[in-house]
Amino acid sequence: MIKSEIINHNNKQFIYTKEDEMFSVTSDSISLINFVKIKAKDKLIVDFGCGGGILSLLLSTLTTKKIIGFEVQDEIALLAKKNIVDNHLEDQITVISDKIQNSLNYVAINSVDLIITNPPYFQHNLLASHSEYKAIAKHELLLTFDDVAFYAHKILKDGGRIVLVQRVERLLELLDTLKKYRLEPKRMQFIFTKEQKQAKIVLIEAVKNGKQGLKIEFPIFRRNEK
Fold it and tell me: Residue 93 — φ and ψ, nearest 5°?
């Protein structure tokens, strides 16, 4: 079933239409957007795996820069396009219904200032009961983190950034993969919950061909989550 809801962020309001099985505005999405730093010189932002367009919509409350979202599932991409039109953002946001592995067909090498992404958290589909949408969104069935880093390196300018959210248990793998493609981790922030003593989620910003020097920002505590 398709339904619409009103989203408020940064004193702005927009309509978000989604299927029941689709993710809405999660705390990870909000944390990721709050972690992003938009620079005055930025001209082009890419949303890898945009889903229904929620990250792009949230970004539009922070900036008027051009945003391109890639979504591999055609039906979900159609909903993302609807969300863009319904919120009169078609001059700022473009949704491309194709996989990230084909991003070079649409975006020039060394042309992007910022990539934002909430990539699949799990390497394998451990829950067969998941819908196709959630299985693809949560598990590396069609996209691996190595793919994300490889194509980020291709399309980012020198000094361009990729900002992402992932599970802490994969942190060492993430850092190794980012460095493999000369994406130097520069900022990191851990997210804790009240019931979980160890950090659960990590936010990372990496810079293409950046110099070494990592800053750990003050952690986020979500006291109302399990």
Answer: -115, 130
Residues of the chain with pLDDT under 50: 128-129
**The predicted structure's pLDDT at residue 93:** 98
Tokens 């890419």 belong to 46
> Are 79 and 3 contacting, i.e. CB atoms less than 8 angstroms apart?
no
- Tell whether the torsion through CA atoms of 46, 47, 48 and 51 is positive or negative: negative
pLDDT at residue 125 in the model: 56
pLDDT for res 21? 67
Q: Which of 123, 174, 137 is nearest to 152 (CA)?
A: 174
Q: What is the pLDDT of residue 121?
A: 62
Give the integer Cα–Cα distance in Å for 64 and 24.
22
**Crossing angle of helices 171-180/145-155, nearest 10°?**
30
